[in-house]
TrEMBL record:
Biological source species: Ilex paraguariensis
Segments traversing the membrane: none
Pfam family, one: PPR_1
InterPro entries recorded: PPR_P_subfamily, PPR_rpt, TPR-like_helical_dom_sf
Protein name per the record: Pentatricopeptide repeat-containing protein
The keyword Repeat appears for this protein: yes
Similarity section: Belongs to the PPR family. P subfamily.
Top-level taxon: Eukaryota
PPR repeat ranges, renumbered to this chain: 24-58, 59-93, 94-122
Record key words, sorted: Repeat
Key word Cell membrane present: no
Length: 122
């Protein structure tokens, strides 16, 4: 996805809000994913914060998208908090979530944590 396309999509989101059309978690998750794909991690996380402030509940896919993006950006400290929030909401990670986490921890040099997550997954 090109950066310009993500910005266009965000403009559509803003227009929806201006017209009092309430975006759902699918709209936010799609934008979060788009911003992560173009490397704009800050914008992605700001959308997540906006989503929560609007009391739109993130689902399993939203959290997996965030975990993948944070691991790509090597923001492991934030991943821990997010992963805990996912569990606190009663959402279970799947193999995609675990694979992203394991990869992120390995790249951060946290091999013991990665191994522990692998054991938890299987």
């Amino acid at each position: 996805m090109q950066s310009g396309k993500v910005l266009d999509a965000e403009r559509v989101l803003r227009e929806m809000i201006c017209q009092r059309i309430v975006p759902d978690n699918v709209v936010y998750t799609t934008l979060i994913h788009g911003f992560y794909k173009v490397g704009n991690y800050e914008a992605a996380y700001m959308l997540f914060d906006e989503m929560r402030s609007q009391e739109i509940s993130p689902d399993f896919i939203t959290f997996t998208t965030l975990v993948c993006g944070l691991c790509q950006s090597r923001n492991i400290s934030e991943v821990d908090k997010l992963f805990q929030e996912m569990f606190n909401r009663g959402l279970e990670p799947d193999e995609v979530t675990y694979t992203a986490l394991i990869d992120g921890y390995c790249k951060a040099g946290e091999i013991k944590v990665a191994f522990s997550l692998h054991n938890e997954m299987v």
